[in-house]
Amino acid sequence: MPRFLKYILVFIVISIRAISEICCQAPIFEVKPMSFNSSVFSDIAPVLFKDGIIFCSDRRTSSITGITTFNDERLYNIYFVASKDTSKREKPQPITSNSSAVLYYGPLSLAPDGKTVYFTSSILTGKAAKKKNVTNPRGIFKGELSGTIIKNVRPFEYNNPKYSVAQPSISKDGKYLFFASDMRGGIGGSDIYYCELINNKWGKPVNLGNKVNSSSRENYPYMHSSGRLYFSSDRPGGMGGMDIYYTFLNMGNWEEPVHLPPQINSPADDFAFVAEESLQTGYFTSNRDRKNDDIFRFSSTIIRKVKCDTLQINNYCYEFYDENAIKFDTIPFRYQWDFGDGSQAEGVKADHCFKGPGNYSIRLDVVNLITKEVKKNEKTIDLDLKDIEQPYISSPEVCNIGKQIKLNADSTNLPGWNIKQYYWNFGDESVAIGKAVDKTYIKQGNFNIQLIVTAVPDATGVIKEACISKNINVIR
Questions:
Q1: Please, are residues 52 and 81 in contact by the beta-carbon 8 Å criterion?
Q2: Structural domain count, the chain
Q3: Which of the four, 152, 176, 259, 452, has the lowest number of CB atoms within 10 Å?
């Protein structure tokens, strides 16, 4: 068979398996538009803030905020909307600053202190900004949020009138500032960069490289507390328009971006993703329902964890040693070990691996080779060997793209638990339920598998839950 036909057949098999998994899997997310969306104007770039959401909108609240630039771009402003409950919202209130009039204003990112904000705005102000056909790129500005006013605004040191620096996202520890820019030397139309805070000054912008950035446009970075960096891109291979992806650092390198599932991505533009700490709920922007952009809320339909304990491997191997042996180094002795499982060994030191958990009585007999005297039970050890109490993932460490692998939780050790369900998160936005599951990866990379075990509620209604994780390397 010609080699290219083999490749085609392999691709078909992989595709069929992937489609089969998707078809048999319940939707991972439920998605609903927010009640505060305008029916006429665009609402974008949600940010979680206290008991509400900060977002950007080009909605017309006056003759000033309703105008466009000379390039027919809508002028956005920043708003805050408080929650009445999980489904209803108050009326949005504008957040202003001395740089927000007649200028592009937003998106925004909150620093860890909850007061310092980094936001996008036009670089040129005053008369220079009002000149016809003037090019006015975006820049990042820093300020302090006080109520609905941003005070003490000052520009980011790497703003430049020759290109845009925009859409800031600061890490949870405040040490890294991510943003999008079309500065020279990039890989595509716009790329994701970051700066590191060193001695209270931002270091020079660093491009995240060609694993994250592409020849297309990458924008709206968002660094989640879990270490996942979400961003949007119109690169080939998505569902259409802008799609949402995430990547993360692994051993100092950014991993191949993961494309979020269809409930969040669509054939329209999907961008500006943010999420709660648990990744159970969050928000993003899309124009899937009409030509204007709206903010949507997503909620996970399956248990998902930001972080889990790392799987620990049960160790049944031990080294036994008689610390008194050195006292008799001038007399020849023979050291005889009985491990209590039918195995024996000789020597001052003895290595032994038990077959599994259990109660073992280890005994050391010492024979004087001159007098032939035997000292029974010179040393005794009672070893109660138990498995680690944890959910357990049995799976290969490495697998090939397109090859179905089997995973099971048969070795889970949770004494006293009446286990109700086993949830699997495979690290590529796919999930499964059951004690034993099958999985086929269709992309190369290092994926973190999560196994979440829940118990039947006890008499007081408390539901026990445990989570364990393990990495698997998917190769070609």
A1: yes
A2: 3
A3: 152
Dist. CA 381–CA 320, nearest whole Å: 10
Choosing from 385, 402, 423, the residue where a domain stops is: 385
Residue 213 CA: distances (Å) to CA of 163, 234, 358: 18, 11, 53
What's the CATH number where 378 sits? 2.60.40.10
Cβ–Cβ under 8 Å, residues 180 and 221: yes
- Domain range for 239 is 27-301
| CA angle, 226 then 230 then 233, to 5° | 165
128: region left, alpha or beta (phi > 0 left; psi from -120 to 50 alpha): alpha
pLDDT 10s digits, 351-369: 999 999 999 999 999 998 8
Specify whether 329 is located in the same domain as 432: no
Query: Residue 69's Cα: distance from chain center in Å?
Result: 37
Do 381 and 423 fall within a single domain? no
Burial 216-254 (b: 16+ CB within 10 A, else e): bbbbbbbbbbbebbbbbbbbeebbebbbbbbbbeeeeeb
50 burial type by CB count under 10 A (0-12 exposed, 13-18 middle, 19+ buried) = exposed
| Per-residue model confidence as pLDDT tens digits over 288-343 | 988 899 999 999 876 667 789 999 999 999 999 887 765 555 668 899 999 999 99
